[in-house]
Here is the input.
Amino acid sequence: MKKSVYFGVLTVASLAAGAAAAGTLDDVKARGKLNCGVTTGLVGFAAPDANGVWEGFDVALCRAVAAAVLGDGNSVEFVPTTGKTRFTALASGEIDMLARNTTWTFSRDVDLKFEFVGVNYYDGQGFMVPKELGVTSAKDLDGATVCIQTGTTTELNLADFFRANNISYEPVPIETNAEAQQQYLAGACDVYTTDASGLAATRATFEKPGDHILLPEIISKEPLAPLVRHGDSEWADVVRWTLNALISAEEYGITKANAEEMSKGSDNPEINRILGSEGTLGEMLGLDNAWAKRAIMVGGNYGEIFDANIGESTPIALSRGLNAQWTKGGLLYSPPFR
Amino acid sequence: MTTITEAPRAQFRLSMLLYDTRYRSGTIQIIALFGFVLMAGWLISNTMNNLAALGKPIDFGFFAEPASYDINQRLLDYNSRDTHLRAAFIGLLNTLVVAVLGCITATVLGVLIGVLRLSKNWLVARLMTIYVELFRNVPVLLWIVFTMAILIESLPQPRDFIGDAPTAFMGLFNSIAATNQGTWLPEVLFSRSLGNLHLFGEARLRFDVSLDLVAILVALGIGIFGARIVSRRAERIQSETGVRPKTGIINFLIIALPVLVVLVALGFYLDGPHLTTRKLKPIEGGTLIRNSLIALWLALSLYTAAFIAEIVRAGIMAISHGQTEAAAALGIRPGRIMRLVILPQALRVIIPPLISNYLNLTKNSSLAIAVGYMDITGTLGGITLNQTGRELECILLLMLVYLSISLSISAVMNWYNESVKLRER
Here is the structure.
């Protein structure tokens, strides 16, 4: 009897602890730092520069969220995660959000209990092979030894693709992009497969990028999306609308340079609502009204972030393609701010 | 006037539980046990509550779902439509393969190095000391990664074997091709094969037994049984007459002949790897042992051998020098002194710590993912865990598997230890 009472007390205590942990936004504010999960290093998306400062496309989103919530884009603790450790890190609360080219799938969203807040890069799985192999199509890859990062959707797509086309292959599971690169360059695998953007980023770091080609086939849809834990909608809203603010900013021409000036008020009410000179959108989110302005001023709008990290002027040289604004034939489409 | 003669009767009071030394230790133990049970109960109930709050109660149903991933190095038939359970089983077999290979190699190397470290030859003894210190003082993960890096960087690519001016050639009469993807060995084939026995049909648990292998094992068993009869007879004659008849050649023939006959009857032949002209998969046929397995096996063996060498050395040094001198006085040569007098006695000292080294090797094999070898940690604790998100279930099961493997190794080794124990009469 006594024992069961004691258990009851402990249960209540643990439930209370669980409820307290659900308020991620308050946790982040109290901590003064955002714990953001990124890759262990993929140039252009998330990698430390020569001074050890993280930079990249995914990193920029972490910084934008930190700026919106905490007022400073540098108040981020970057937690490098591998394909295998990322979900455990998020589920256990070690990180507040995951911005690590992670594909939005049904089972991750529903079964793994995560909440994807919106797509920040529309990608697809591709193949990279050395030119000297003379392969021009993924269907010619019969018998190839293929390097894949383990614990990713690419691993499953790969099995499905080769099975559907009835061709054989040998998978070589690898933990990180760096190891895959080493094995691929040494010829220990004939083919390297991952998201096409990742392939482009990896190839850009090669000594002779011209010796390797990306095959034309894109064998899967890989909508890469930042995600948070399921069941904390307030926090999910903050991350979702920070991303939407960056996308809308590009649509309405708000840039890093002119955000300050435009926030004084403009003729376009939508811009005013985003930048906080009209309405109380920020307060509804549990932030102040200048949240989006701060987010935009860290690294610029979506287009600026894209161009600075992975765009055509960078060594990675990805074109906007599907990731252009809907007004320009792409898929980027932010819900309205009102 | 009366005097109190009888001792005051010890009345049990509650405070005696604490202040009476007769009860105190018992009280403390019961409190400690109670605390422990409470702690464990709290951990379990907390976990259950939090999992339920996350909407992920413990459920092993995912094992029946298709795994959807491929495994390169495997002993049994497997494809990506098979279940997670079968993938885990394939991984378990891979773990056992590397553990068994590793334990055998580590023992052979370890005994050799341990004995050589005691050599009177200064150079040999010092070289072995360097080996031992080098291997046991660097973490095994580094050795695994290092071995893999050497294999990948130093061996030729498969496509170097073909073309107009090949830069790499197969060794041993064109039967072995060592490449940086793996080593191709000749494949064992039978022209009059008996085929396979399909257990459990096409179901999830399908398990093909090669009848050829069964036939060879049966022949080998008959041979060993025959050899034991011959040895018993030799022992009987020795105890009666004092002269042991020579049995070496007879025993060899008794064991080898039946196997040879079966091999010929089955039409045994080796089919080496062949070169093709394709740039993708230039080598076909033969059996491929991937570098991930080789690297893991080598690194674990070399690392554990350093520890076993020290155990062997300690075991030998534990045997009194008088034994060596006595044996030498009887005119036995040094090599036979070691083999017939010292090592059998040293085994009693060597085996118990040897067991823990076998266990260590088996558990260290879980570092396999560092080189992409799909052991049970890589399948069940890696991809399956990651794709299904069932962390707790997978890890608990994984712990159970390693526990079972370790306890089995312990049981076998303890049985062996029992059999070599000094029998006192």
